[in-house]
Amino acid sequence: MTRVVAVNRTGGPDVLSIEDWTVGEPGPGQVKLRQTAIGLNFIDNYQRTGLYPLPLPFVAGNEAAGVVTAVGEGVTEVKVGDRVCYQGTPGAYADERLAPAAKLVPIPDGLDEQIAAAVLLKGLTAYYLLFKTWPLQAGETILWHAAAGGTGLIATQWAKSLGATVIGTAGGPQKVALAKAHGCDYVIDYRAEDFVARVKDITGGRGVDVVYDGVGQATFEPSLDCLRPRGLMVSFGNASGPVTVPDLGILARKGSLYVTRPTSMHYFPDRTALLEGATALFGAIQSGAIKVEIGRTYSLGDVAKAHRALEARETTGSVVFTI
User: Fold this and answer.
1) What is the DSSP letter of 198?
2) Of 93 and 238, which is predicted with more confidence?
3) What Rg value do the Cα atoms of the chain yield, rounded?
4) How buried is 193 (Cβ within 10 angstroms: 0-12 exposed, 13-18 middle, 19+ buried)?
5) Enoyl reductase (ER) domain spans which residues (predicted)?
6) In terms of Cα–Cα distance, which of 147, 141, 260 is closest to 209?
7) Which residues contact residue 231 at a Cβ distance below 8 angstroms, ignoring those fewer than 6 apart?
8) C-alpha torsion sign, points 58, 63, 65, 67
9) Which domains are delineated in the chain?
10) What are φ and ψ of residue 192, in 5° steps?
11) b/e string for 199-235 if b means 16 or more Cβ within 10 A?
């Protein structure tokens, strides 16, 4: 038996239930993991509420790091004793679990397992957004919403290292200062300033080449006004609620704009793409281009408290559960 955080019905953080489940032995293509650190992400909330539905009951969570303790038939990707991490594989909130070997990423020597659990999902998101969705070039200007969040702190540093001018938004002086210290050339306090007007002022009226928006409903339409003609709006999250675009003509009126709603499953369809992204991410960390900020740690027993803090936007950087 192992401790898990189960979701038996969708809803608020109160539906998260600490239970003992049987793990079993790994089948073909699977491994058993003893987990040491687990990452918290907004997708965990979306699955818990039913916005991103999963069959009930399920074990919550999508990202963790740990040690391989057993391997199933046909597994060649990893071996017993390897330190590994993963993302995008539901069932992470557990002391032990079975996981598909093809989804596991080796943790480089010298990299702490808490860092690996804090960074893989968010860092791979930053990777595909900056290198694939819009291959960012030196001299371009971007706007990144929630720049003091886990993904934001990674992405803004990475974008700055590529030679971009980085404008971020954050809520309150503490978050503004944190974002400024992690790669942003300019940080707009959206609670105190009109971010559209400030972006236009910063860019001399031109607008930015790309907006990266994980906030969703509250920021989507104003963000269109921050773009230069034929710029790209990248909507990759729904922290304030899902986005609806009933009138596509708005894109024409605001400058023949482009809009995309990417997800990691289409950017990492196989192990080759996964390892390519992870290699780039860990390389950026080891080079010092990205410094990982773990804002809070919780015990797994405090999972509901952690979910409430994330939903209330009380957190900065990455949040990690320790085992």
Assistant:
1) H
2) 93
3) 20
4) middle
5) 11-321
6) 141
7) 207, 208, 209, 210, 211, 255, 257, 258
8) positive
9) 2-120+269-322 (3.90.180.10), 138-261 (3.40.50.720)
10) -115, -15
11) bbebbeeebbbbbbbbbbeebbeebbbbbbeebbbbb
Q: What is the mean pLDDT of residues 197-208?
A: 98
Number of Cβ within 10 Å of residue 260's Cβ equals: 12
pLDDT tens digit sequence for 270-316: 999 999 999 999 999 999 999 999 999 999 999 999 999 999 989 98
Q: Which residue has the tokens 């400024």?
A: 180
Query: pLDDT tens for residues 31-43?
Result: 999 999 999 999 9
Containing 275, the helix (H) or strand (E) segment is helix 271-287
- 151 is written with which tokens? 């993904």
Torsion over CA: 287, 291, 292, 294 (sign): positive
| Separation of alpha carbons 186 and 88, rounded Å | 32
Q: What does the DSSP assignment read for 149-185?
A: BHHHHHHHHHHHHTT-EEEEEESSHHHHHHHHTTT-S
